[in-house]
Design goal:
The complex is a heterodimer of chains A (about 190) and B (about 500).
Chain A (H helix, E strand, L loop, with lengths): L1 H8 L1 E2 L4 E2 L5 E3 L2 E3 L4 E2 L4 E4 L4 E3 L4 E2 L4 E4 L13 E3 L4 E2 L4 E2 L3 E2 L4 E2 L4 E2 L3 E3 L4 E2 L4 E2 L3 E3 L3 E4 L4 E4 L8 H10 L21
Chain B lengths: L1 H4 L4 E4 L5 E2 L5 E3 L4 E3 L4 E9 L6 E2 L1 H6 L3 E7 L8 E10 L15 E10 L30 H29 L9 H5 L3 H7 L44 H5 L15 E4 L1 E8 L5 E5 L8 E4 L8 E7 L8 E8 L6 E6 L4 H20 L1 H9 L18 E4 L5 E3 L22 E5 L2 E10 L7 E14 L12 E15 L2
Classes of the chains: A mainly beta (about 190), B alpha+beta (about 500).
């Protein structure tokens, strides 16, 4: 029965594209509209619900874990809200305690649960953020030694890429059906 | 790949006496000797930019301070910068009517380019460099305060060099008067050419003396400007301060804050050719085209000398003999006969060194060699042969006979049947095409636990030289018996 309840907890808003093949969504996960999740991605709401904001791009082998050290048994854990327009590139592992908007987590990067990420940040390819840290806006983490600098450049708009993938992915993958319709509120929730 | 990146456990003795893995050795097929990086002349063939792959002549490269003026490195993280295009709206040139309000001015899109680093997101806009109209635009050169001082110093020292050169030439001319075959008029009359010119009322032929430019030397001063009042109390933002690496990558400016980081011109790379110091033949020569990674001449040792690899080593214990398995590979297109022998004793080694010294002396005294060295750009300094700086801590029981090794044949990999018709010696464990595995017995000498066991042997092999040696008309390949000394680090005593 617990398996059923976990399944029911998954809320998928319409207009999002989530590949059903091998992608793992565990716990109370809400995917907002416009999100795009590639196959083999993992989103694990371990210590509380996860809400993924609009137009997020989650690529292959991405692991997003909400882990504050406790296991949420009675739906009372804090909610991890991931802002809109974030990009999680191939193979990154993100356990951050807070994620703002327009961030890019490049390939194979790692962000631990002691880190809070604000807006418009870039965590470079392969960079590891392990210790307690707050990334102010427009921060770039780059290089072998995970150096930090501030950028004035705004992130490019993702809409073109997302539109392209929204057309392309359903041709090759099974797509999860939306389970939540905002027009008929309180039906499932 | 592993034997290029990792420290090798099999080392060959170069003709100069240094130990090197086979991947770092060259083989001069005119001297028939192994050569290491110290035994070859390194010559710069061409300069090129590794980003735009443009070939730049050496004179131009010198003028441009060995930098490409089109490609840039990121001043923040030293990656290559790429140029990115944006479209901006620029006001159309109106026909003389300047009183139009800003809202009604017609605009047209125009492409503008700026530099950006894809690794750390640094852009040329960070430091306020205006966008350029063309992609490989004329980016403004960074000016630095000591530029004039440096150019003055450079001019002065160039003059000094020229003057010294001239003086040396004059001295040399006076010291060694030209010896002609037939004595000319001036020799007989005792008049020099310049005296005759003077008597005839002609001007001096000698080049005008280089003007001695004077520069004011730098002076040390006791007056140092005061530190700002708040230097110890003001909180600093480390994000605004450059790292040592960022400062040193731009030595002329050495910016201390990040808002002074200007794009760095990319340094040029070189293609170099290697030349044997003894016979002055080319050993490695790359193709001239920067796009090509091939060689015109490539006498790497791993193409000519049988390669020894350590396959397996039994447990190492002090005073107990053990078995090691080595693989020997024939990289050449001819059959080889290999004999494994003892390393030369100290007396034998000194004899080898004597002989090599004699040979190199003879060669450097020869008329051809001196002519060559006069023409070559780099004076050829031979590396002094020396004793091998490596003690063996174990002995090898030698195999009782020599063995054959087939030529390399790339097609044998696809053959199904591996038949060995030949009678094999006992120590040969297996054999496949040009590879053979040989079992040797090693006896560690008085070793303590934790000591490394190093054994060595001389490997004599037949080498078929297909290169036609200069001077002789012999075209048919000649067979030589060559010897390489090999040292194996087989492991540590338990």
């Amino acid at each position: 029965m617990s398996d059923m309840s976990a399944k029911n907890k998954l809320k998928i808003y319409p207009k999002s594209v989530i590949c059903d093949d091998e992608s793992v969504l565990i716990g109370d996960v809400t995917i907002s509209s416009g999100c795009l999740i590639h196959p083999h991605a993992t989103i694990h709401a371990k210590s509380g619900p996860i809400i993924v904001g609009e137009n997020c791009l989650i690529e292959e082998y991405v692991t997003i874990v909400h882990d504050t050290g406790t296991v949420d048994l009675d739906n009372s854990g804090p909610t991890l809200v991931i802002g809109s327009n974030n990009v999680f590139e191939v193979g990154c592992t993100v356990e951050a305690a807070a994620i703002g908007e327009r961030n890019v987590f490049e390939c194979k990067s790692y962000v631990s649960n002691l880190v809070t990420v604000s807006n418009n940040c870039v965590i470079g390819a392969g960079c590891q953020l392990v210790d307690e840290h707050h990334l102010p806006e427009n921060t770039v983490i780059y290089g072998k030694r995970s150096e930090q600098r501030e950028t004035i450049e705004k992130q490019k708009s993702l809409s073109m890429q997302l539109d392209h993938l929204r057309k392309l992915l359903p041709n090759y993958h099974h797509i999860k059906k939306p389970t939540f319709d905002p027009k008929k509120p309180r039906e499932i929730a | 790949m592993a034997n290029i990146v990792e420290p090798s456990c099999v080392n060959y003795v170069c003709s100069c006496g240094y130990l090197n893995p086979i991947t770092k050795l060259y083989f001069c097929r005119y001297c028939l000797k192994l050569r290491c990086g110290f035994c070859v002349c390194h010559e710069v063939d061409s300069h090129f930019c590794c980003n735009c792959l443009e070939n730049i002549p050496s004179g131009e490269a010198k003028l441009k301070r060995n930098q490409c003026n089109k490609c840039f490195d990121c001043p923040s993280c030293q990656h290559t910068l790429s140029s990115r295009a944006t479209t901006v709206q620029v006001p159309k040139k109106s026909d003389g009517d300047g009183s139009k309000s800003a809202a009604t001015v017609d605009t047209k899109p125009r492409k503008m380019y700026y530099l950006t680093c894809l690794a750390c997101r640094w852009t040329s806009r960070d430091v306020g460099i205006p966008d350029q109209v063309t992609a490989t635009g004329q980016w403004p050169e960074c000016e630095y305060s000591s530029a004039t001082r440096f150019s003055m110093l450079m001019e002065h020292y160039q003059n000094v060099v020229q003057q010294e050169k001239q003086e040396k030439q004059d001295l040399w001319r006076r010291k060694a008067p030209k010896q002609h075959k037939y004595p000319n008029l001036t020799d007989r009359t005792g008049l020099t050419a310049s005296m005759i010119r003077r008597q005839m009322g002609l001007s001096e032929k000698t080049a005008p003396k280089v003007k001695q430019s004077t520069i004011s030397p730098s002076l040390s001063s006791d007056v140092v400007s005061e530190l700002p009042q708040d230097i110890f109390s003001k909180e600093i933002n480390l994000g605004n301060i450059t790292t040592i690496k960022q400062r040193l990558s731009h030595p002329s400016v050495q910016p201390s804050t990040v808002n002074n980081l200007y794009p760095l011109n990319k340094n040029l790379s070189i293609k170099r050719s290697l030349r044997c110091r003894q016979c002055e033949h080319n050993i490695v020569k790359p193709e001239y085209n920067p796009l090509s990674v091939k060689y015109r001449i490539q006498l790497f040792a791993s193409y000519h000398v049988p390669e020894v690899r350590l396959m397996k080593c039994g447990p190492l214990e002090a005073g107990v003999s053990t078995q090691i398995l080595i693989k020997i590979i024939n990289p050449t297109l001819h059959e080889m006969t290999i004999t494994i022998m003892d390393l030369p004793t100290h007396e034998e080694e000194s004899l080898i060194i004597e002989e090599m010294k004699k040979k190199s002396d003879k060669q450097s005294l020869g008329p051809l060699a001196s002519l060559n060295s006069a023409f070559s750009r780099q004076a050829s300094l031979n590396e002094e042969p020396k004793f091998v700086d490596q003690k063996v801590t174990g002995t090898i029981a030698l195999p009782d006979s020599s063995f054959m090794l087939q030529q390399r044949d790339d097609s044998t990999e696809y053959d199904d049947d591996h038949q060995s018709s030949r009678e094999e010696p006992k120590f040969v464990v297996w054999r496949r095409s040009n590879k053979v595995a040989v079992e040797l017995t090693v006896n560690p000498l008085d070793c303590k636990s934790g000591d490394e066991v190093i054994v060595g042997f001389s490997m004599q092999y037949t080498y078929v030289n297909t290169a036609t040696s200069s001077g002789t008309d012999k075209k048919e390949p000649q067979t030589h018996a060559l010897t390489s000394r090999v040292y194996l680090r087989i492991g540590k005593i338990k």
